[in-house]
Amino acid sequence: MIIHLSKGVGAEEASKLAEKAKAFHIHKGEQQILITSSSVKEVPDFLKGKTDESWVFDNDMQLASKAYIKGTREVTIGNVTIGGDTKNTLLIGGPCSVESESQIRSAAEILKNMGLTTLRGGCYKPRTSPYSFQGLGSEGLQLLVKMREEYGLSVITEVRDATHVDEVIEFSDVVQIGAKAMYDQGILRACAKIKKPVLLKRGFGTTLQEFVQAAEFILSGGNENVILCERGIRTFETKTRFTLDLCGVAYLQEYTNLPVILDPSHALGYAYGVTSLAKACTAMGVDGLIIETHENPKVAKSDASQQLTYDEFAQLYAETSKVAAAVGYKIV
Q1: Residues 6+ apart with CB under 8 A from 72
Q2: For a surface tag, which of 92, 128, 206, 304 has the fewest beta carbons within 10 Å of its beta carbon?
Q3: How far apart are the C-alpha atoms of 56 and 77, rounded to whole Å?
């Protein structure tokens, strides 16, 4: 249950009421909000005289529900806003991993020259094998900061675990929580305390409800800037890396108030079909795409098979721009 307390209830009183109700307390401007488990179906008696409005839910997808906020929340990344009524599809590009200054600089230059605004690059890599390239860590973060300063791009990078979450929060413009870290309570709670946008990726064995409930950890801590990212789920199919769940995306668009971004690179796992998938995603009116591109994918230190060349990325941009225009959106 979500309870909006009456205007006369201040933050200090609301905090005490939250403690008594065993509820989360969020203060949004002058509005004091309490959130309890969805198992609570009625406003407690001691709150009835102090309640302005309340919402009852069948499950713990509450703050993210369109039953609570009817439209899609707006999230601003740098000078670009997605969600709401913007009709923007944010195209995020860059390599799977930051490998060197010359490599990440080439990606930044491509994005800048195309008029795009957001650079991705992994610094702490949650690899399946301990023998694979694990990322440059702090050195990679500093290179992303350098690209932001020189090219005016927003940067997004992934948190591998809670040991370096504060460092990623400090230096990135968007904090990415990857599929393997989606259940990490330390990361979720740290991201709940900030106001920076958080891109939450769906785990490859995660139900839609589990996915949205992970977002609720961040929302219930006070950070409203949450973006959902579908990146493929594990099915019986073995010819592709994962299966991009566009049915799930339709559900998220219908029932949640959070912007939705798609990652066709990780879903397919091979470069040959990424552009086709990106066009399909764009046709659904999604809020963004995250695409892996590398100066020479054949020598990439991670996810070589799925990264596009710069020419292929430029072609993807051209083709998705046409699709976006056809459904009333704009690639930004």
Answers
A1: 83, 84, 257, 258, 259, 287
A2: 128
A3: 32
pLDDT score for 226: 98
Note whether 9 and 52 are within 8 A (CB): no
Structure tokens at 231: 């990146």
Measured between its terminal Cα atoms, the distance across the chain in Å is: 37
Strands (E), the chain: 2-5, 24-28, 31-35, 51-55, 75-77, 80-82, 88-94, 118-120, 154-159, 174-177, 198-201, 226-230, 260-262, 288-292, 330-331
Eight-class DSSP state of 82: E
Place of tokens 């594990």: 234
* Residue spans per domain, the chain: 2-55, 75-331
* Statement: residue 128 has pLDDT above 90: no
Spatial separation of the C-alpha atoms in residues 96 and 87, rounded to whole Å: 27
**pLDDT-based confidence at residue 127 (cuts at 50, 70, 90):** confident
pLDDT beyond 80 at 177 = yes
- Residue 212, token pair as written in the block: 């949205």
Rg of the chain taking only CA atoms, in angstroms? 20
H or E element, residue 192: helix 185-192
Distance of alpha carbon 131 from alpha carbon 148, whole angstroms: 30
Q: Which residue has the tokens 């069948």?
A: 58
Look-up of token digits 């949205």: 212
Q: Say if residue 168's pLDDT is above 90.
A: yes
Residue type, 276: S
Report which residue type is found at 84. G
Paired residues of 197 in beta bridges: none
Beta bridge pairs of residue 175:
157, 198
pLDDT, tens digit, for every residue of 195-246? 999 999 999 999 999 999 999 999 999 999 999 999 999 999 999 999 999 9
For domain 75-331, the CATH architecture is: Alpha-Beta Barrel (3.20)
Which run of H or E residues covers position 326? helix 310-326
